[in-house]
């Protein structure tokens, strides 16, 4: 197993040099879910377009957060995303909203952090909008699903 | 169960009016954990102060994210935190880093979102620093632990 | 007519001292409209909730912009808004979307700039989402409608 | 007339994929004007360099806002502007300050929103600096003047 | 000599708790200077209002930086400045521009960092605008001059 | 000596056009030092890893500030850094912490401002963390050390 790339030989944090990495199309998919009371889920999904804003606000927050990733995560490189999407799907069985994100760019570094940040912030935004009725919601399973492009190539979550 | 406060009668998102709420001391504690391979955890905790930067970077990122919450979460009120702390504790049994955050202020609205955002971003920062060796890490159990102050009073997670 | 308060005696810009101003409830309402082709307006309003995201995105962008006003307008004071709302109403006769904003806080300085910034950014966001089909849209009538609180008292637009 | 590109088939907002678009030189010119009382205009333009800061502050605010466009407008792509200019010309006949902006870059997406945002924020900054003497100022005619580069080619406002 | 307040007993960084500190008027004055070639200074000061923008841009950049201090300095508390001024005075003898800043607020924590950040960023902005003609400029003597208010009381630089 | 490039013929600030400049690897090294009481320096360096956070926080703040340079310095171009490092070395003889920064990217404009901003903000962050024990610290010798790449070629500080 290789060493932690974000620390130099003295164990000091630095922003890794990617100057020599190839510019390739890179893509990442991430996931998060927020578990809630059945009544909370019902409030979000019922009422048709009237409640549409709840999911729309979370979607927008996720997209904007992807763009601010290098500002939030100290050692992330700034980069220029060429696509971001955030999909929110209610899952009545799990009593959860499931969040799937996709980020893409043509650049020198991967976009895993952008996809993960979008998923996390979309989930936090749902928490914010529903916390008056359900403080016990839990955000879970925030994880990378797939990654393409770059030297390390294709990676996909197991199972 | 009351309705979603962040939507008006037409179902449109707005920033809730807190002008008339009392200025009281408010406090929130949140939690998150990031599960990883035992080898990854070993890399973070071994080596004494040399690896100290990994946890320090995550701690700082969490503190700064708390301050940017109203910029990230669309309907959050801007507020002036008077205290933020982020504690990171390795848990060898779980093969995880456990993150506990505390936010406090004297103001008109609660700081739950600030505490949750700090925990999430600290976890994402750990993911970023270790992703070169372990892409399968999972952030989990992001939740509010306790909340004090304000009209809704004291709330504590069950169990 | 008094002098420009944002310049000192040498004509140099500064951020005006409001340390001694009273903390009172302050409120401002602003307006903007964006004129477009009838076909463009039709695309936004038709289709029921499916197109709902267009107005929701503009609403969120306006709310977030209000919170960032002191970052955008160099001599604005930072302040803590306690309420923001952005209302978007299609006007078929004018072939326009009409935007009305309201900002409120309890503080030492007024919130006119916050209300005007929210209206402007909501309008720009509509332009962005529709520009692929209608580059000739025009944002117009960006103005303060009403202002309450503070030493200068109540002000309302004429006519 | 094509459909709204910023919504997917379900009517959900997303950041459009520009990964496959060509990198070309792109340029946009925008315009805005702010109408004011003749006395207000007189205060800005008189006094020679002493009042120079009013126009300088608006110019700087416009340039900085252009750089923050993707942060303000939710579905805008981040991009790296290679030139921004903001020109402010007093027009005594109209009793207005006329604002012309130009943005340029070599990239995968156009810079219309950057030019329009620069013009809007320069106008809002003028409002801020003069509002103590003239609350009735109106920002008007915020529009795209010209656009070059990219697949949709050259576009110029009519008339 | 007391211990470093920004570290807890384990040596971990945290944002100090100021919840219990009194709200008082607090003020800080800071200073910085940028030394340059006599020809560079001559270019800035000559030409009357034509070159006025150089000092105006630095002034605005300093004011805006003061407002962003808590975003830049990880352990600074967010606060609401009620006054900022940045004064730039050419000193032909020293061949330098001397920068004096003043920040004020009524709050629970001091504004030393805001005054120092304003001075530093004003100096960096001057460097940026003149670097094409003089890369050897040096920013020096960035220091706190005076501090009033708060528990630690009045402090003034010696000599 | 050429004229100030950041002003147009009327002396108005603008963001210089770099559209036609070549994309080359560019690099800059900068320096800053912060002078303090010997006791203050002793507090930072003693205690081994327990005090490690002080230097780690300053390092992270410097890295993050480099990424925000175009947001802080009004006429700087946005750019995508591919490497940032910030090194902090205690110098007992000088009773100072010496800060050396390095920024690199492949782009159309130089990274001098990014390296200088990183050094300044790292120094300000040290000031913040130690100000409770030593308000008289002075940041000094903020300067460019070396610059490579671009049309103006290699530049190195004299002496």
TrEMBL record, chains A, B, C, D, E, F:
- The entry's substrate-binding residues are 75-77, 113-114
Catalytic reaction list: (8S)-3',8-cyclo-7,8-dihydroguanosine 5'-triphosphate = cyclic pyranopterin phosphate + diphosphate
GO molecular-function terms, A-Z: cyclic pyranopterin monophosphate synthase activity
The pathway that the record names for this protein is: Cofactor biosynthesis; molybdopterin biosynthesis
Give the first-level EC class, as a single word. Answer: lyase
Q: What is its EC number?
A: 4.6.1.17
* Alphabetically ordered keywords of this record: Lyase, Molybdenum cofactor biosynthesis
Active-site positions on this chain: 128
One GO BP:
Mo-molybdopterin cofactor biosynthetic process
The UniProt record lists the Molybdopterin cofactor biosynthesis C (MoaC) domain at: 15-150
Assembly state and interactors? Homohexamer; trimer of dimers.
- Cross-referenced PANTHER family: CYCLIC PYRANOPTERIN MONOPHOSPHATE SYNTHASE, MOLYBDOPTERIN COFACTOR SYNTHESIS PROTEIN A
Q: Which NCBIfam families match?
A: moaC, PRK09364.1
Protein function: Catalyzes the conversion of (8S)-3',8-cyclo-7,8-dihydroguanosine 5'-triphosphate to cyclic pyranopterin monophosphate (cPMP).
The similarity annotation says: Belongs to the MoaC family.
Stated name of the protein: Cyclic pyranopterin monophosphate synthase
- Species: Neptunomonas japonica JAMM 1380
- Gene, per the UniProt record: moaC
């Amino acid at each position: 197993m290789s060493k932690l790339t974000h620390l130099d030989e003295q164990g000091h944090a630095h922003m890794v040099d990617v100057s020599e990495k190839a510019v390739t199309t890179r893509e990442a998919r991430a996931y998060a879910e927020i578990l809630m009371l059945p009544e909370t889920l019902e409030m979000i999904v019922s009422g048709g377009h009237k409640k549409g804003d709840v999911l729309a606000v979370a979607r927008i927050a996720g997209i904007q957060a992807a763009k601010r990733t290098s500002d939030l995560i100290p050692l992330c490189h700034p980069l220029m995303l060429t696509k971001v999407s955030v999909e929110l799907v209610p899952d009545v069985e799990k009593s959860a909203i499931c969040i799937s994100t996709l980020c893409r760019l043509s650049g020198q570094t991967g976009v895993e952090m952008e996809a993960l940040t979008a998923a996390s912030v979309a989930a936090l935004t749902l928490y914010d909008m529903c916390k008056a009725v359900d403080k016990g919601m839990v955000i879970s399973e925030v994880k990378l699903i797939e990654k393409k492009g770059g030297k390390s190539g294709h990676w996909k979550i197991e199972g």
